[in-house]
Design the sequence.
């Protein structure tokens, strides 16, 4: 009789722990397993703040506008895709993307969105090096632009 009572207590404790754990998981939601990503990820933002408005380049089916933008060292430029196709802004020269001097991007420089962004998406890049930096749309290399960093 004593063995049955002990077994019953063990079963009740195990079921209680199982129910408690199950309820906690239902409240927290399913656990997602992170997937590996590139060390350089595009930064997508819903909309620029007013101070960033002047540092926005619009990409259309005709190319980048403005074609040249001048910013201060440390500022960020946002490229917004308003075209009907994907946009992948990347440092010149196609296809190496190696003109901007920081390495470690997905191809050459870190100045590379590393993926095609569909219409309506944005990508931003902060410029820490002064100079004149040419770029292009990797999906359509004839569309080019320039960032002048003072």
Sequence:
């Amino acid at each position: 009789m004593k063995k049955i009572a002990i077994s019953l207590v063990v079963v009740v404790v195990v079921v209680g722990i199982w129910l408690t754990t199950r309820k906690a998981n239902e409240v927290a939601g399913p656990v997602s397993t992170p997937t590996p990503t590139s060390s350089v990820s595009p930064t997508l933002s819903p909309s620029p703040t007013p101070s960033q408005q002047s540092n926005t380049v619009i990409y259309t089916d005709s190319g980048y506008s403005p074609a040249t933008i001048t910013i201060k060292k440390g500022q960020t430029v946002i490229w917004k895709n308003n075209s009907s196709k994907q946009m992948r802004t990347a440092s010149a020269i196609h296809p190496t993307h190696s003109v901007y001097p920081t390495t470690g991007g997905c191809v050459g420089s870190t100045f590379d969105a590393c993926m095609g962004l569909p219409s309506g998406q944005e990508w931003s890049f902060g410029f820490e090096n002064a100079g004149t930096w040419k770029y292009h749309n990797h999906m359509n290399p004839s569309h080019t632009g320039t960032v002048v960093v003072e």
Q: What stands out?
A: The CA atoms of residues 73 and 88 lie 23 Å apart.
